[in-house]
């Protein structure tokens, strides 16, 4: 076992990087060592920062992204040169698409070898530039604090995202002979509200509208933004629709104004509300969450865009009024300027039908196969266990559509979903992040049997960390979300089937508790056992996807 040193003879650039991480308030880093980056891991041995060794670099970035999403401060992941850094790509693309602040640091061959065909030489700065907000190399020890400081600022400034810093091995090992400053968080920029005259213009448009609807996006689910949005909805009484990533922004007391979550397919009552609206107020919305061409069928209808940065214009998303600044402060000012409205009642009938349809869907849900569960049977059981302090982390698959449409959550950032890159394998690493940030709280993560196997090697990490999580696997031996779309398009599926795994035995082989269930009662018992267990629990549920085609079917109202 590595022993900590009480002192060092000389300070290196690696030590200066660590001092910058400490100054920025980093508590945890996740990564995998290697010869080109091991000096940095060695320096971290003398730091209060907790180093977590992952089993795959992609999962390390997912974990850092989860920390970033939950805390709003950049999570940090470290990888060695060559394939260690190239394995960061998917995690960084996901973080940048989702708006999650992440700083990654990668090793590199020495400066003299950067352009040679030598072991693990790779232009990683250029490779990762398209999937990051900032990608740079520390070319000399004197530039260390500057590059790290600017990387943090890029990761955490609007819109937040992933950044990458490459450190050649000879730079990392270089002795620091001068007292270079560290770049902490003292220069963090705080935005104010949008200009008052533009807020007045938006309020006037809202007062004039006959059927305005609020569309919430991923930034609406930040806690401070959610608080302001709830006050706005309570004051104006407007109907509200959310993208999948806005989950939790609407509080329980406002559920009567909530028209559901929309995304992927234009076939929900929330879509019907948006179709009927004569004005849409988009708050914290990014087009990557749900294509504007799907929800905005009226090109001339005015849109008010409330965000931290101006919209990327789209033929179907060209806002008439833009309120750019702090979302929370802007919405607070807009609430005061707008006051109470009566126009929200114009769409009440759609809200009533939506709520009735949700109840009816749960009432008729039943598996057609013995020993299997219908998706809504699983979600109904989960509802009894999902308290306000439990975080839900969803992987990518058709199961995430069922959760997004039917599982109610009322805390901002309570449900984490990837709908930017729609990345498979994120749920387990995100669950570990949630457990790291709030160790006393239970976390429930959900994967399909396909997506689970893309990050399952880090179940060992969860066991080592004693992560307080329950991971539910929906088992059907297919990449099911691909399957339903292939069947819709081609009348058959192709290349989506794979073999069975005993997931309970698989989990036990890692040192986790593993439970196979085959009924509603056994799922309830397994969840009760999971809630009482310290450390990771894996529950495998055979799922009957008989009603999956309905996920893509249009509502009668939308088929006209």
From TrEMBL:
Q: Which family does it belong to?
A: Belongs to the TPP enzyme family.
Please identify the protein, giving its name as recorded.
Acetolactate synthase AlsS
Concerning PROSITE patterns, the annotation shows: TPP_ENZYMES
Q: CDD domains this protein is in? A: TPP_PYR_POX_like
Q: Origin, by domain of life?
A: Bacteria
Lineage in the entry? Bacteria, Pseudomonadati, Pseudomonadota, Alphaproteobacteria, Acetobacterales
**Pfam families to which the protein is assigned, alphabetical:** TPP_enzyme_C, TPP_enzyme_M, TPP_enzyme_N
The segment(s) forming the Thiamine pyrophosphate enzyme central domain are 199-334
| Domain Thiamine pyrophosphate enzyme N-terminal TPP-binding: start-end pairs | 12-127
């Amino acid at each position: 076992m590595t022993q900590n040193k009480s002192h060092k003879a000389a300070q290196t650039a690696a030590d200066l990087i660590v001092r910058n991480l400490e100054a920025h308030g980093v508590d945890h880093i996740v990564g995998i060592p290697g010869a080109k980056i091991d000096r940095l891991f060695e320096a971290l041995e003398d730091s209060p920062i907790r180093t977590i060794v992952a089993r795959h670099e992609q999962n390390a970035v997912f974990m850092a992204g989860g920390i970033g999403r939950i805390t709003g401060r950049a999570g940090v992941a470290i990888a060695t040169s060559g394939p260690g850094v190239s394995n960061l790509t998917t995690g960084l693309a996901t973080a940048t698409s989702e708006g999650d602040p992440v700083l990654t640091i990668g090793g590199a061959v020495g400066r003299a070898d950067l352009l040679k065909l030598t072991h693990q030489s790779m232009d990683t700065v250029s490779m990762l530039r398209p999937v990051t907000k900032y990608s740079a190399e520390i070319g000399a020890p004197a530039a260390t604090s500057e590059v790290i400081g600017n990387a943090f600022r890029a990761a955490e400034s609007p819109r937040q995202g992933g950044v990458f810093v490459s450190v050649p091995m000879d730079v990392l090992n270089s002795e620091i002979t001068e007292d270079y400053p560290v770049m902490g968080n003292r220069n963090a920029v705080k935005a104010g509200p949008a200009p008052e005259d533009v807020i007045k213009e938006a309020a006037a448009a809202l007062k004039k509208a006959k059927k305005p609807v609020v569309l919430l996006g991923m930034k609406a689910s930040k806690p401070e933004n959610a608080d302001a949005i709830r006050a706005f909805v309570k004051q104006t009484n407007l109907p509200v629709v959310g993208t999948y990533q806005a989950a939790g922004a609407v509080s329980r007391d406002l559920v009567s104004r909530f028209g559901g979550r929309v995304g992927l397919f234009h076939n929900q009552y929330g879509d019907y509300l948006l179709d009927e609206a004569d004005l849409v107020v988009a708050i914290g919305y990014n087009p990557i969450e749900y294509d504007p061409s799907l929800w905005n069928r009226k090109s001339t209808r005015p849109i008010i865009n409330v965000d931290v940065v101006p919209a990327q214009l789209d033929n179907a998303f060209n806002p008439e009024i833009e309120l750019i600044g702090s979302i929370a402060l802007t919405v607070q000012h807009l609430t005061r300027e707008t006051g109470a409205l009566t126009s929200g009642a114009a769409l009440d009938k759609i809200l009533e039908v939506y709520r009735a349809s949700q109840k009816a869907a749960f009432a008729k849900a039943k598996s057609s196969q013995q020993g299997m569960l219908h998706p809504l049977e699983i979600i109904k059981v989960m509802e009894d266990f999902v308290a306000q302090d439990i975080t839900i982390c969803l992987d990518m698959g058709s199961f995430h559509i069922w959760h997004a449409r039917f599982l109610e959550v009322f805390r901002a950032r309570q449900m984490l979903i990837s709908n930017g890159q729609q990345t498979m394998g994120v749920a387990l690493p995100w669950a570990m992040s949630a457990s790291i940030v709030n160790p006393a709280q239970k976390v429930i993560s959900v994967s399909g049997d396909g997506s689970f196997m893309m990050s399952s090697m880090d179940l060992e990490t969860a066991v080592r960390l004693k992560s307080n999580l329950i991971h539910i696997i929906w088992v059907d031996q297919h990449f099911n979300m691909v399957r339903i779309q292939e069947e819709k398009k081609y009348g058959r599926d192709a290349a989506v089937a794979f073999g069975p795994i005993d997931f309970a035995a698989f989990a036990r082989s890692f040192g986790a508790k593993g439970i196979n269930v085959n009924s509603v009662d056994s799922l309830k018992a397994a969840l009760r056992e999971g809630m009482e267990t310290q450390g990771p629990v894996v529950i495998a549920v055979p799922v009957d996807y008989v009603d999956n085609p309905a996920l893509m079917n249009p509502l009668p109202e939308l088929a006209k």
